[in-house]
Amino acid sequence: MRAVLFDLLSALIDSWSLWDDIAGSEERGGRWRFEYLRLTYGTGAYVPYLDLVEESAAAVGMPREFAAELEARWDELAPWPGAGAALRRIARRMPIGVATNCSQVLGVRAAGLVGAPFRSVVTAESAGFYKPDPRMYEAGVEALGVAAGEVLFVAGSPRDIRGAVSAGLKVVWHNPAGLGAGGAEKLAFAVIDDLSRLAGVIARI
Fold first, then answer.
1. Residue 156, Cβ density class (10 Å: 0-12 exposed, 13-18 middle, ≥19 buried)
2. What's the CA gap between 182 and 66, in Å, rounded?
3. Which tens digit of pLDDT belongs to each residue from 101-132?
4. Torsional sign, CA 77, 123, 87, 9
5. Which whole-number Å values give the CA distances from 178 to 95, 105, 175, in the listed order?
6. Hey, what domains does the chain have and what are their CATH numbers?
7. Which residue of 84, 99, 157, 173 could cross-link 115, Cys pair, CB 3.0 to 4.6 Å?
C-alpha cells in the first residue's frame, strides 16, 4: 500500500455521541442516525448534506431543527480515542486522505478535529456524489495521487465496506461501536476496534 483513505464521520470520529445528545438519548439518536444513513446511501448525486439530516429527523418523528443544531455544534465532534496519534504514525510513511459523506465546509472542519496531516479532504459535495457511488471513492483516490490498487480504504460502516470494495479498493473496517454488518465484514481484509492496530494491519497487506 502506498496511501490510506479514510471514512471520516464514523471511522475516525465518534459522531454517534453528538447525534445521541441532540436527540436526547442513545435510542433516539440511533433511530435518527440509521435513517440518515439509509437516505444518504440511497441518494447518489449530491444534494445538500443538512437537507438529508433534516429529512431523516422528520422521518423518525423528530424536529427538523435538529439539523441546524448539529451544524451549530459540529465542532463538538470528537475523534475516536487515539485516532490522531495512530494517523500521524501512518502519515510518516505514506499520504493519508479523507472521503466523507458531508458538505465541503463541514468535512474540512471535522477533519481538522482529528489532529492528523491529511493530504486531501474529499467530500460528497466536492465529488458530486455520496458514497457508495464508486465515483466518490475514485475522487478520494485521485486526490491522493496514487492508483486505486495502491490505496487502502478504512471504512466506518458496512455499506462503506461494500462500496469501497466495488470501487476496487482493499478495505479495513474500523468498528469501535460494534455494529453488525450482515456479512459485509467478510469483504474486509481486517476488522479492527482500535485505530492503534491499523499500522500493524497495513504491514501485513
1. buried
2. 29
3. 999 999 999 999 999 999 999 999 999 999 99
4. positive
5. 28, 29, 6
6. 3-14+77-204 (3.40.50.1000), 15-76 (no CATH)
7. 84
Are the C-beta atoms of 34 and 19 separated by less than 8 Å?
no
Residue corresponding to grid cell 469501497: 164
Helix (H) or strand (E) holding 170: strand 170-174
Task: Look up residue 66 and give its amino acid.
Answer: F
Closest residue by Cα to residue 98 from 106, 89, 107: 107
**What is the model's pLDDT at position 189?**
95
Which of these, 139, 136, 177, lies nearest to 158 by C-alpha position?
177
Return the amino acid letter for 19. W
For residue 46, give the 3-state DSSP assignment: coil
Integer Rg of the chain from CA: 16
| 123, 7 contact by CB (below 8 A) | no
